[in-house]
């Protein structure tokens, strides 16, 4: 099926969490909105563990009841395992903030993305999958001055040119607009890769009223694993390490994954007796930001705006929160008739300031010196702000003070001997 019109107030590119959120919230305010996704829905995608603060965008979208009624596993906390196999005390989010928003879900992305896609339709957006964006159309060739005027699409019926007042780029790491204008700024220190698959019948710990995300280091600390229990007795398991270490000269990805599992005995215990599913996948996880979040008639959201390492499960939250904030600016711009970069991108400085703290926490994780249990013992007043970051409260005014102490402390710990029994991360 092709778009019903040749002109819309807003065209959103990409049917992932960012695109569906932006399309739904703009359409909800009465503006004609077209959402296009190149793949057939539901689509396969990694990124199953959510941050609790995603709750508030779910509430705006009206999908909390759907998630609560779904088969998705309820996520109640997080636990960390260091290179010696020492397991931290489980950290339960509700102990920090006793509210419904303190618990979230481990989702199956095909079903989750389909739910958001369908919800965008319910909110008034016109949504089409299997529709490829051939080109974003601009008046001008410079990111600072070029005005987006629409898109050229390939549908089942052939090519179509669609005009629009605003184009929202939610194309993920394809980053159509950012790549066109060379806006990406790569983080050379976080050139990671991930290999993952799902397992049936692996260990599930549901103490605390639900499942937890586990983060496990390998014995040589060159990699870490995520372990995300899902519904139907399925667990998502993925290894993350330097791109060159994981993907160059070590054989097939399946062999590399098994080698790293053998290098993580605690994980091997969790997987004992389980069945590996035939869905192995590989991705390069290169972290980056963009120099410009918006221009005349266009906005970047989600991974099209920037990508960060998945260690804290921030991907879906960043996607939806950026789209949530950007959609408010898009609605304001459409209502006022001012489609300038300043108006459409007014959300970006606040969002960038918040994500900066999560990026710093990621860098702390990869420093190898992040013994948070010890840090909290020495600075107990920072336990709350650290917890805020783990649940997604990245706009807290306590962040500057936290890192004013954490950064020099990490430098000190770099030269301090390890006892071998300290958890790399623990907040309880």
Task: Explain the overall architecture.
- A hairpin with a 7-residue loop joins strand 7 and strand 8.
- 49% of the residues are buried.
- Strands 3, 4, 5, 10, 11, 12, 13, 14 and 15 form a nine-stranded mixed β-sheet that branches. Strands 1, 2, 6, 7, 8, 9, 16 and 17 form an eight-stranded mixed β-sheet that branches.
- Helix 1 runs parallel beside helix 4 and helix 1 packs parallel to helix 9.
- This protein has three domains: 193 residues, FAD/NAD(P)-binding domain, CATH 3.50.50.60; 131 residues, D-Amino Acid Oxidase, Chain A, domain 2 (2-Layer Sandwich), CATH 3.30.9; 62 residues, no CATH class.
- The chain is built from 14 helices and 17 strands.
- The chain is 33% helix and 27% strand.
- It is α/β, with parallel strands linked by helices.
- This is FAD-binding domain-containing protein.
- GO terms for molecular function: FAD binding.
List the helices and strands and how they pair.
Blueprint: E1 7-13, H1 17-28, E2 33-36, H2 55-61, H3 64-69, E3 73-81, E4 91-92, E5 104-106, H4 109-122, E6 126-128, E7 132-139, E8 147-155, E9 158-169, H5 176-180, E10 184-200, E11 211-217, E12 223-229, E13 234-242, H6 243-247, H7 253-262, H8 265-271, E14 275-276, E15 281-290, E16 294-295, E17 298-300, H9 315-336, H10 341-344, H11 348-366, H12 372-378, H13 383-391, H14 399-414
Parallel strand pairs: 1-2, 1-9, 2-6, 3-11, 9-17
Antiparallel strand pairs: 3-4, 3-5, 7-8, 8-9, 10-13, 10-14, 10-15, 11-12, 12-13, 16-17
């Amino acid at each position: 099926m092709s778009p019903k019109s040749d002109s819309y107030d807003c065209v959103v590119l990409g049917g992932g969490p960012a695109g569906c959120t932006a399309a739904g919230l703009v359409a909800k305010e009465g503006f004609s909105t077209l959402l296009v996704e190149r793949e057939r829905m539901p689509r396969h995608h990694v990124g199953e563990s959510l941050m609790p603060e995603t709750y508030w965008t779910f509430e705006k979208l009206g999908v909390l009841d759907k998630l609560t009624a779904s088969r998705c596993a309820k996520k109640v906390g997080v636990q960390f395992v260091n290179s010696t196999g020492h397991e931290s005390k489980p950290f339960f989010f509700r102990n920090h903030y006793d509210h419904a928003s303190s618990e979230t879900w481990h989702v199956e992305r095909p079903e989750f993305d389909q739910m958001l896609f369908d919800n965008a339709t319910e909110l008034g957006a016109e949504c089409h999958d299997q529709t490829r964006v051939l080109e974003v159309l601009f008046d001008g060739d410079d990111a600072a001055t070029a005005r987006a005027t629409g898109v050229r699409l390939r549908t089942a019926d052939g090519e179509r040119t669609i005009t629009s007042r605003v184009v929202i780029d939610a194309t993920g790491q394809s980053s159509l607009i950012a790549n066109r204008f060379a806006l990406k700024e790569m983080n050379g220190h976080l050139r990671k890769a991930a290999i993952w698959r799902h397992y049936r019948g692996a260990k599930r710990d549901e103490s605390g009223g639900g499942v937890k995300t586990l983060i496990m280091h390998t014995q040589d600390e060159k990699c870490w694993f995520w372990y995300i229990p899902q519904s139907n007795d399925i667990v998502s398991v993925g290894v993350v390490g330097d791109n060159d270490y994981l993907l160059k000269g070590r054989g097939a990805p399946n062999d590399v994954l098994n080698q790293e599992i053998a290098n993580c005995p605690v994980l091997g215990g969790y997987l004992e007796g389980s069945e590996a599913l035939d869905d192995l996948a590989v991705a390069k996880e290169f972290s980056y930001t963009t120099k410009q979040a918006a221009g005349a008639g266009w906005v970047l959201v989600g991974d099209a705006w920037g990508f960060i390492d998945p260690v804290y499960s921030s991907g879906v939250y960043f996607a939806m929160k950026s789209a949530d904030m950007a959609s408010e600016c898009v609605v304001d711009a459409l209502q006022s008739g001012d489609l300038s970069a300043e108006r459409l991108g007014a959300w970006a400085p606040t969002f960038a300031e918040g994500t900066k703290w999560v990026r710093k926490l990621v860098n702390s994780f990869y420093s190898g010196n992040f013994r948070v249990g010890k840090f909290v013992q020495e600075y107990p007043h920072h336990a709350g702000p650290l917890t805020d970051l783990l649940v997604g409260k990245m706009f807290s005014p306590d962040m500057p003070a936290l890192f004013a102490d954490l950064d020099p402390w990490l430098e000190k710990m770099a030269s301090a001997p390890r006892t071998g029994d300290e958890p790399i991360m623990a907040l309880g």
